[in-house]
From TrEMBL:
One annotated Gene Ontology cellular component of this protein: membrane
Coiled-coil segments on the chain, per record: none
Keyword Iron set for record: no
Residue ranges annotated for the Major facilitator superfamily (MFS) profile domain, each copy included: 41-475
Keyword terms: Membrane, Transmembrane, Transmembrane helix, Transport
Protein name: Myo-inositol transporter
Membrane topology: Multi-pass membrane protein
Transmembrane regions listed in the UniProt entry: 40-58, 108-131, 137-156, 168-189, 195-214, 280-300, 320-341, 348-364, 384-408, 420-441, 453-474
Pfam families: Sugar_tr
One BP annotation, GO: myo-inositol import across plasma membrane
Source species: Penicillium alfredii
Length: 519
């Protein structure tokens, strides 16, 4: 009886989703507002909230100086265990932010992240024991997870379609910049008495700045409309599209209202059922989470977490300086994806970069074997220099494609499950991050560096196969149109058809406007 009732309920929900889909099609996705030039305000908003990405980047590397509070254990497994306190806490923070963002808005999660980051930084800066430092790190991690989950979601909903990828990638650039700043601070404070206290305290400054500027940023128009605050959504859309006509703004609001009509007063249980039991939504979630898993399990974060340790193991006598070079490479090459993601699309850049990374691990694998056998001499050989070059090239490829596209996955999810799906995507991020950071040093010892790097190459190869077969291109498409891509299968071909239709309609509208202007 209960099973029949549940099935009936699911059927009704699916019927409701079908009605929403038909209504969206009937509106012919009136996105003419997307042709207008966005204002400076939307870029300032993206820059402001991307300080949350900077928080994400600047925090993870403070444990390098944990030894100054208490002598840490030296066994590989114990070194591993000092890192997971960071990924585990953001995982929890992402869950809390995801469960509350639909009910209380996107901005609340960012505010919460700022508060937690400041509190955690103060606790760490005042710590006199490993236990105090661990508590502070955990609190900061909660804030990092909250901000890291909400910021791409918020930017994705605020951004014009043709700049959506670039604006989300800017958040990832801020992550990379935070990592670079953290390395630089680490190098600068290494020989300063109690320098680690200054380093973690400085981390609170961007959190305070973000909290101070965030009131100037409006709530997401899609979130406002979902809660019936249409007049506020109208004002927000006019800030994003200041050159839009009243009819274009009204059309955009109407389009969002149709998408939001299915989630009014819906429970969390309903959202979970929609996400996991509606095939189209599940396929979108799998796609986003798979790309995120590849970005974490492909080995990049091992270089960011353990770069000094790794380079010491293969013979470099100045591993901290080399780590700064790695961080700088990650930041600089992130601009490549920023420039091309909304031009060539996500699929092309992702497939090319994942291929390059997979094959890149092969020479790294071979060189690590050579350098490991000669590292005891303490000399920097041709093999160690070439290994450094190959690792830096790997970081460049990763920063140019995989890292930013992983966080763009929020655009694949329809409004009714977007926050929940983005939360799960963040959980995948931090869960895989936890696995990598917990196992890397032990893998290096038991599997040797060559075996470890070979494992990462295999993960990247699997990712390449998945991208070619299942990753649909949705750049320049309105968020409300993306739901059509996954209606039957993973939508690689259907996305191409929809892209052509949207381009054709926009070109026809542009020609009609040009003809009208001549009359």
């Amino acid at each position: 009886m209960d099973a029949n009732a549940n099935r009936s309920s699911l059927d009704k929900d699916e019927d409701k989703a079908d009605v929403v889909h038909e209504e969206l099609s009937a509106l012919e996705l009136d996105d003419s507002i997307e042709k207008t030039d966005p204002g400076v305000a939307v870029w300032l908003i993206a820059c402001t909230v991307s300080m949350g990405g900077f928080l994400f980047g600047i925090h993870p590397y403070s444990p390098t100086f944990l030894a100054q509070t208490s002598a840490p254990p030296s066994a590989p497994m114990n070194k591993n265990s000092s890192q997971p306190s960071h990924p585990a806490a953001p995982l929890i923070g992402a869950v809390l932010a995801g469960l509350s963002s639909d009910k209380y808005g996107r901005k609340l999660g960012i505010y919460l992240g700022c508060v937690l980051f400041v509190v955690g930084a103060v606790v760490q800066a005042a710590a006199f024991s490993l236990a105090q430092m661990t508590v502070g790190r955990f609190v900061v991690g909660l804030g990092v997870g909250s901000a890291a989950m909400i910021v791409p979601l918020y930017i994705g909903e605020m951004a014009p379609a043709r700049f959506r990828g670039r604006m989300i990638v800017f958040d990832n650039l801020c992550v990379a910049f935070g990592q670079l700043v953290s390395y630089a601070l680490g190098a600068g404070f290494t020989h300063v008495a109690a320098g680690w206290r200054w380093m973690v305290a400085i981390g609170a400054v961007p959190a305070l700045a973000l909290a101070a500027f965030l009131p100037k940023c409006p709530e997401s128009p899609r979130q406002l409309i979902a809660h019936g605050r249409v007049s506020e959504a109208d004002a927000a859309l006019r800030r994003i599209f200041p050159r839009a006509t009243d009819a274009q703004v009204a059309g955009k609001i109407r389009l969002i209202e149709q998408a939001a009509s299915s989630i009014s007063e819906r429970s969390l249980g309903w959202q979970i059922k929609q996400l996991l039991c509606v095939p189209a939504n599940l396929r979108a979630l799998v796609t986003a989470c798979m790309v995120m898993a590849i970005s974490q399990l492909g080995g990049f974060n091992t270089l960011m977490y353990y770069s000094s340790t790794l380079f010491s193991m293969v013979g470099f006598n100045q591993p901290t300086s080399v780590s700064i070079v790695v961080g700088g490479t990650n930041f600089i090459f992130g601009f490549f994806n920023f420039a091309v993601i909304d031009r060539v699309g996500r699929r092309v850049s992702l497939s090319l970069v994942v291929t390059a990374i997979a094959f890149h691990w092969i020479p790294v694998n071979n060189l690590s074997t050579i350098t490991s056998s000669s590292s005891s001499s303490g000399e920097t050989t041709w093999a160690t220099i070439l290994l450094l070059v190959m690792i830096i090239t790997y970081v460049a490829f990763f920063a140019a494609g995989v890292a930013p596209v992983a966080w763009v996955g929020t655009e694949l999810l329809p409004l009714e499950v977007r926050a929940l799906g983005t939360m799960i995507n963040s959980v995948v991020c931090w869960g895989c991050n936890l696995i990598i950071s917990s196992t890397f040093l032990s893998m290096m010892k038991t599997m040797t560096p060559s075996g470890t790097f070979g494992f990462y190459a295999g993960i990247c190869f699997i990712g390449w196969v998945f991208v070619l077969g299942c990753y649909a291109e949705v750049h320049n498409m309105p968020l409300e149109a993306v739901r059509e891509v996954y209606e039957s299968g993973f939508g690689v071909r259907k996305a191409k058809v929809l892209q052509r239709e949207i381009r054709g309609r926009r070109d026809a509208e542009a020609r009609a406007e040009a003809e009208a202007g001549k009359v």
